[in-house]
Amino acid sequence: MNFSGPIERDRKLYYHSFASVKEAWIPLSVLKDQQTALKPNITGPSVVVSPGERAAQATVEVMTDDGILIYHLLPMNAIVCWNSKTPFTIENQHILARVSIRKLIILRMEE
Known about the structure:
Layout: E1 2-3, E2 12-15, E3 24-27, H1 28-32, E4 48-49, E5 58-63, E6 68-73, E7 78-83, E8 93-98, H2 101-110
Antiparallel strand pairs: 1-2, 2-3, 3-4, 5-6, 6-7, 7-8
């Protein structure tokens, strides 16, 4: 989980389930509303689940002040970024770095 950049008027909390390839977000104003705690479920336009997907499961993620979400794709062993000002689609997600398991094994053996 992490927050959108401080520039936004109503910042968002971005999160995802470990088992999901979707990203979700909710405005902080909804979470700060005391009436929200009384509701059994928060649904509707308050909670957004991305229409697009990631290529695979993601583990950790961090958001830059400029709204760039950087995360780790588990099976691909890749660091990927997405600009939160664009739709959450595969086309808008870019691999920054990728390490193959074979390279990791070789590096480990050389230590």
